[in-house]
Amino acid sequence: MKVRLITIPNLLTLSNMICGILAIISTLVLDNMEAAFCLIIAAAVFDFFDGMAARALHQSSPLGTQLDSLSDVVSFGVAPSIMMVGMWQLAPSLWGVPDVLGYAVLAVAAFSSLRLAKFNIDDSQTTEFEGLATPANALMLGAMAVMVERGEWTVCREALLVLTVVSCLLLVCSIRMFSFKFKGFAWKDNWVKYLFLVAAVALLGVFGVGGVVWTIVLYIALSSTLHVVKSLKK
Question: Does the domain spanning 8-180 belong to CATH 1.20.120.1760?
Fold first, then answer.
């Protein structure tokens, strides 16, 4: 079977991966989590457009699917985990939590990998997600790291351990979360997405980078509520 390696969608996917690698370097070498967060945003943009380009150019392939997940592990699994290590180093401890426990936050990278592997073999996630998508999780953690680095938020080490557990569970949970894949633009079919986008713009306008965290929290809460309502109807 002939496999085309160099295609526009694959180049976009590789750009996603490069942004993730640069985000890791920005955190570990340059000690600049704001730059790392911007690079994660850029990775998310490339991740959004690579699938769109593959469909538009009729260049979807198994290779592209696997490459996409590999890139996402780097940009939305490893990079935010490294940023959490950075947060850990800045965080005070209420009960004298030792430094070595900080490596527990790397579980986010492991569970992101599990979530992406599960996504690759699950054909029920074409119009919605099961569990929190890795880009959303990465943006939430990255924005929080920026706020901590700026000194605008203070997060203790105990809270970071709890956040790690919650984040990992959200990635692999069975809660159905809505996606932004539009089949049409009618209000009846997309009212939840439209209302969420309006709320997201408002949160970002009021809280800036911190608004990214509240936007993802709103997304999780709204998706969870809809999931419960649908389950009760069934």
Answer: yes
